[in-house]
Amino acid sequence: MGALARPGDALLAGRIYAWLCVLPLLKRRLSLAKLVRLMWLRPRGAARDRVRERRTIRAVARLSRASRGNCLERSLVLYRYLARANADPRLVVGMARPDEYLGHVWVTVDGRPLLETAETLASYTELVGFGRDGAQVTVDSRADSAQERYRPTDGQSDGSSTTSTGEQLTSGS
Questions:
Q1: What is the DSSP-derived secondary structure letter of residue 133?
Q2: Contact present, 85 and 49 (Cβ < 8 Å)
Q3: Is the pLDDT of residue 1 over 50?
């Protein structure tokens, strides 16, 4: 199935790309908390739409790579459209070490990171998370690093990441 298999996919891709173009400016003007609240979209319908989730993850992966978007921009857009699919995403901000200024942002659904591998997240400690409606959520401090929290599944030891439904995405997706 191609990236734009349905007419709605083209509209979604256009919206994603527009946000990827605007976010570099907005992130310099708004606090992170305001930006996250702005990016939250009210879920459409009462049921989770796993088909829309998969399409969103694939589109964000492709378009953020093409636009050279950074992790914050990619994660904010992913958070936005997964919220619309009623996936209940969580936006997570982490730091590599307390004495370094190397940060990273990623999205989780059902406790699993999306478009990331456990190896990528191994050196990061979660500092803050945002959930439904852009509200700040408590970070579980029992795990010292993201590696302890996001152990790879059996089929994920090859450096690929997965969608929230377990479908594998490789770095070439």
A1: G
A2: yes
A3: no
Number of domains in the chain: 1
CA 150 to chain centre: 14
In this predicted model, what pLDDT tens digit does every residue of 135-167 receive, in sequence order? 999 876 555 555 556 654 444 444 445 444 445
Q: What would the two tokens of residue 124 be?
A: 């990061």
CA–CA separation, 14 and 116 (whole Å): 23
Question: Is 140 part of any domain?
Answer: yes
If one counts every other C-beta atom within 10 angstroms of the C-beta of residue 97, the result is 11
**Class of residue 4 by CB neighbours under 10 A (exposed 0-12, middle 13-18, buried 19+):** middle
* 70/63 Cα distance (integer angstroms): 11
Nearest C-alpha neighbor of 60 from the set 130, 117, 12, 129: 12
Domain assignment present for residue 172? The answer is no
Please give the model's pTM, rounded to 2 decimal places. Answer: 0.81
Could you tell me if residue 2 is inside a domain?
no
Joined together, the tokens standing for residue 129 give 């998370």
Q: Which residues are within 8 A (CB) of 123 and not within 5 positions of it... i.e. 6 or more apart?
A: 96, 97, 145, 146, 147
Average pLDDT for 99-120? 90
| Residue 144, token pair as written in the block | 């010292």
d(CA 114, CA 87): 12
